[in-house]
């Protein structure tokens, strides 16, 4: 069984420019050694006629698919009319529209009162701004982050990231952050919120009073671990009790990925600070926001800045995306339905092989126990026209990050490929083991 | 005397959305309290009919002006054809073209052999990548940066930044960086390269062996201080002698601003690492590069990454900009001519009032001795249709960052405004002093 | 019931010199507001005729009692003969004798092959040397220390200390140390060695690869928590498995306090590094040692030093103490017997009031649940001629650190006082509660 | 010419215990490979009949010579009477006497109002306490220290130390300290106080607002550089102007070494904090003090502590030393006369060979330009019965730290040896050069 996608034709052309001129740091291009040129909706096209169903979505940056026609048209219109592209942090029509729309469609309906800070347009910059602000407001230095958390690559955010290989790139020790066990880290019988509570309450635990507790509700890079609402509520309450700000890094799990605009909706707590990026612009353009309660807005003018903090193209597409997808609940209903589909299919696959599923909403995966196996499966999928990647400390979780706008039938087709390739890989494993 | 630009009409509309929803961290919008909508070439337009000559150029992000027609058309074409917008670090046609063009038009003609790392698309991310790599390659932790240097707002780059107000926003101590006096810091009679040489040679100076020396050839935010080629050569030689990598942060001074594509051309040294951003995309889109010698490319795949490291829109406009402006020397000749014009006019103004000029190429200013005076002058200019800003530790340098493509006559007109407003402000000052 | 010790007579004399000239940092003098002049064996005398049984022993610095006659005579003889007092790190007869004796009586019988480093003569200096060496040898920066651990007040050792009030005195963030839960920290049902094992094995836990694991076998300041041999063995094995050095800080628990010369004897592991101080000189003179396996002795000459690292008076008394107390097993037998006595008496008291005991050997206490109660009891004991102090995060553990040489009958008498005063304080508490 | 000291006789005995059991970190014992047993006044004796004139004085720890009879007798009397040896920070008769004497003979006559903090009894502990307090009181983190400064080996003090080899032993980056050029660092024509003034006044210099400026008036380990009173006054004024505390580390230069009890007397400023150690006990016993203005005494009880902070033996000898040497000005007159003698003799030697002298009072040396030459001279001196050592970044300064109590004739004799051995070494150098 394969999805009927055209395969690329012709010999692989000369790619020596990458060897010669692009740094060895490149990664995805190694596992997916094609050259892409166009993309629309759920499809990516290579420049040799190949077509690929995208179950990666730019790591959740393309929740609305590639080049969504409404966003695309809005952007073309804006550029054609000489709309300002780059405006530092000047007031622009595009920014005003974005702010008004965000207030009307996102904040007001959810009863949220946040101020928005346009940081440099990357997730790591948004996280840096968030922890800077928490330290400034509280006068404390320590930030509590969690095992398997991923928050970015600049030094402040990297210190909050758990992954040793990423941390090792810093070249200096990463300080002022304590990494505590995430929900379920020590198995289902240990409530890690209670462990944290004990350490915070103990004046001799060595855990310095935190400026902030920084958490992802689902750990995108860390293996799709989804924290329970109860655990998150406890952590939020602990933060409040101990004078720390509660920061939700919603960069990967937000913008509908887990079902709602924010990943923490209806959970019974309101973060003090929220970071957003990835799918915020809706079309994959660089854009990031740090939201916080107005009382926390103690920045001096220009105390944190960045040349590209006024990416007006992103304001335009983000506004169009908000209007199109978040004016009513239809999109959330779709996500809920597709998320259930995805869950059921993954559960079936997991049960077949004795694995476990992970995640929430349309941010789910299967823990296949080893990075080698996961890589074998995703490589086979790619050959079959399905772009899919892995996650987790050992890359042991095959993750499905399909566009949220995917047609149910196509979602099923993509999962068929995954199911088949997984079954084959397991058979190969057994064959090898039997030798 | 005023430039004949239309003034905005009508009452100032409701802007409460900014008060209500945008963080207090906003800065430029305070000094230029209009709302802008369109821009082309050297002109910005507010939404009430006002027109402004742009002598700020997005802090040197818009060296080719706003919405340059060739870049704009290339981008519209790309989007219209469903060109990939967001590609993580996958190979794309747009990236391949950019790399080939960069190699052909930039690297080869200059005899430079660099690898390019697409970092998160902001200058600070490029600087973080640069110092990470230097620390990784050398196994050392200390970075030497300079007084009045500005390198970004994320923790690693901020530690390299001299400005106390920016540093204070960190909320944690900024470590692993030594700030040494820049060229001319102690006046014309003290060779600060010699001071640094002594400290580096002295095993008891307290200066830890550096992984890198990080320098701007002209300090954009720090007051337009331009280092002499002799000084830069000495610093480059010191880096080499002491096993440190020599990093030129060319984010603001590069892309033609100081006369050539790189600000250090023809100076007799080759940096080990170069950072670029701002005008690199040509149209103000977020884009950043870290270049380094191939021997230094010791990254593991994915050791440093970032969601928006593959901003394909920026690849497209950057490629178009390289082809249009850097295929021959015409553009450089223009910059040279305009730079001389600018220099002469600023010298005249400075002489009239006993001030000093600063800078190099089309990156020049007048040190008027106080931030208050500078602010008064730039505010008067804005009322007169000229967007111009200040720089320096006390904001005491009025800086001219006109688009490099500006018509000579318009450049003169803008400078006429500056000259007149400066003269008036000086007269006001004298009148106040006489009271 | 009271011990028949003389009470001080006369009015309290003028002590304003302390108010005027000694820093507010003084602590013990506040709870024990007498002025002492002489001391011998288990007795301290104030200068108004009062006599006190010493159940504090200089926080385990006076395990052999005050001014032990044999040590005292050896010191007087040495001084009288113009023996060198201060010798930097020169070879001296006194040092040679100490090293030979230490080798003969301590190392050889225990099958230990250590080199000795004479650090500055305080425990914190010995800890600083230990962690410096571990970082140097492994090339790693992180040190794992434990909740409630206490290792000293200089910045390197303070970073390893758990107590928030002590840490707060640093004035800078304390970095490069991870604090993990000690044995029993999360109650009897959670094996914290397993938690640590999981974090060390997980490349995404945020726990940087450790240079060392630093542990007290019994936490003297942290509440007399005694780690089980099984737990310590696991921790030692984890250190080895993960390339970290295993450091036992034996400053308070060593020199016989827990029963043997080292607190870890017969536990089935050999630390890579051991720190000693407190009772090492035997007479309360400043003296500290860092011991390590010869392969770890990678110091360059003078790479770590200190003016008083050659305290020859301490060499003399330490040698005399080793010869007198550690030439055979009689002393260890005595400690064992007295430790059992102490354990039984404390257990009885604890049972009476529903409390728990803590500790091991002659390093034991009762957790009375609150610092206020513990303070009330120890203050009443002091009025009754018994010097005794508290320990723990909240000062909630009354700790008995009697001289190891105490006569069994005197030990019982001191415990009688404690028992009576505790009973009274509990009765007072009940009375108050009943009101 | 040689001083008529007995030479050691017999073969060098077995010293394998040091190889076997003492760490490679030992240093002085390598250059002076004898074993010492007794010492009195200016003389040290080895255990084979050799006698040595001591021009090292335990690095200024033995300013009153070895085993001064009055101090020695006071200590023997105290021990014989069972005086308390170790008293934590309890009030003791010995401590009261010390405080009263220090107030009467040191503080009052000099018009100084300081509180004394008994830190752990090493210089580095005193420095750690000083910088902790400065950070606590000011709420700032940065400490300004100077090139070639030496302040100790624990992490906080080591960060203030300039020497790269010592710093390298830390194994972690040393942070929160800026190293600025000491007086004369850039030659006689550059006023480094002015350089510092500029950097402190410049909000963009990258120099974080300092909690303290920490300085030695003469750099004992750093090459006997003596700061001028003018420079020190400027630095003290800069500290005050910028809200930093001015700390004089008087550990090596104090206690008469430079002429008065404090090295900064009569210079026209009063430090906020002073550290003392080395010769404070008078007999080489471990003892350290941190002095500060009463308003700065913001410690909480026990916020900084240390087991050996109440070394009563040291209180006794320190009190005796204060009474004997500092009750009148006779001792200071002696130092002044001998200092002049020393200065003249060193100047003569320096002139003969084209060298320069360094230092002040009885803390002087000759910079012979290379560590190899200095080592050759001091080794020859040792063979001739003179103990003398080197200092400076390259060990290029031969330093004379004779006991302050040395008889003028003996001082001359020792200098005769130095003069002769220096002349020989210079002749050897010339001979080698001529080959």
From TrEMBL, chains A, B, C, D:
Q: Does the keyword Transferase apply?
A: yes
What domain of life? Bacteria
Q: What is its EC number?
A: 2.6.1.76
**InterPro entries in the cross-refs:** Aminotrans_3, Aminotrans_3_PPA_site, Dat, Ectoine_EctB, PyrdxlP-dep_Trfase, PyrdxlP-dep_Trfase_major, PyrdxlP-dep_Trfase_small
One GO biological process from the UniProt record? ectoine biosynthetic process
Metabolic or biological pathway: Amine and polyamine biosynthesis; ectoine biosynthesis; L-ectoine from L-aspartate 4-semialdehyde: step 1/3
Top EC class of this enzyme: transferase
Which SUPFAM superfamilies is this protein grouped with?
Answer: PLP-dependent transferases
Provide a Gene Ontology MF annotation, just one: diaminobutyrate-2-oxoglutarate transaminase activity
The protein's required cofactor(s) are namely: pyridoxal 5'-phosphate
**Keywords from the UniProt entry:** Aminotransferase, Pyridoxal phosphate, Transferase
Question: Hey, which family's this protein in?
Answer: Belongs to the class-III pyridoxal-phosphate-dependent aminotransferase family.
Protein's UniProt name? Diaminobutyrate--2-oxoglutarate transaminase
């Amino acid at each position: 069984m394969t999805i009927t996608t055209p395969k690329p034709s012709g010999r692989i052309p000369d790619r020596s420019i990458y060897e010669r001129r692009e740094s060895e740091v490149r990664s995805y291009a190694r596992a997916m050694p094609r050259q892409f040129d166009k993309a629309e909706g759920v499809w990516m096209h290579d420049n040799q006629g190949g077509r690929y169903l995208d179950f990666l979505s730019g790591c959740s940056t393309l929740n609305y698919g590639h080049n969504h026609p409404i966003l695309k048209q809005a952007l073309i219109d804006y550029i054609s009319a000489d709309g300002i592209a780059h405006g530092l942090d000047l007031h622009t029509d595009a920014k005003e529209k974005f702010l008004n729309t965000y207030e009307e469609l996102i904040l007001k309906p959810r009863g949220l009162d946040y101020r928005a800070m346009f940081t440099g347009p990357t997730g790591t910059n948004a996280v840096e701004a968030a922890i800077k602000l928490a330290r400034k407001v509280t006068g404390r230095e320590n930030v509590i982050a969690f095992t398997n958390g991923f928050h970015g690559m600049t030094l402040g955010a990297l210190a909050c990231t758990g992954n040793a290989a990423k941390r090792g790139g810093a070249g200096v020790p990463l300080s002022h952050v304590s990494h505590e066990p995430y929900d379920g880290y020590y198995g289902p019988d240990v409530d890690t919120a209670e462990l944290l509570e004990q350490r915070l309450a103990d004046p001799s635990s060595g855990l310095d009073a935190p400026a902030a507790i920084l958490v992802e509700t689902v750990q995108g890079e860390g293996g799709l671990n989804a924290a329970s609402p109860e655990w998150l509520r406890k952590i939020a309450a602990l933060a409040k009790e101990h004078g720390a700000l509660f920061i939700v890094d919603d960069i990967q799990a937000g913008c509908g990925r887990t079902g709602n605009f924010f990943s923490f909706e209806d959970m019974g707590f309101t973060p003090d600070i929220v970071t957003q990026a990835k799918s915020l612009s809706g079309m994959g353009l660089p854009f990031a926001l740090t939201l916080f309660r107005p009382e926390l807005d103690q920045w001096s003018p220009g105390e944190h800045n960045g040349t590209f903090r006024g990416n007006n193209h992103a304001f335009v597409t983000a506004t169009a995306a908000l209007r199109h997808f978040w004016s009513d609940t239809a999109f959330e209903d779709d996500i809920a339905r597709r998320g259930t589909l995805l869950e059921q299919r993954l559960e079936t696959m997991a049960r077949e092989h004795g694995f476990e599923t992970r995640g929430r909403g349309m941010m789910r995966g299967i823990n296949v126990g080893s990075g080698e196996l996961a890589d074998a499966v995703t490589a086979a999928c790619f050959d079959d026209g399905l772009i899919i990647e892995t996650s987790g400390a050992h890359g042991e979780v095959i993750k499905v990050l399909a566009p949220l706008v995917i047609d149910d039938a196509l979602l099923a087709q993509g999962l068929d490929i995954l199911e088949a390739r997984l079954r084959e890989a397991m058979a190969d494993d057994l064959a090898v083991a039997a030798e």
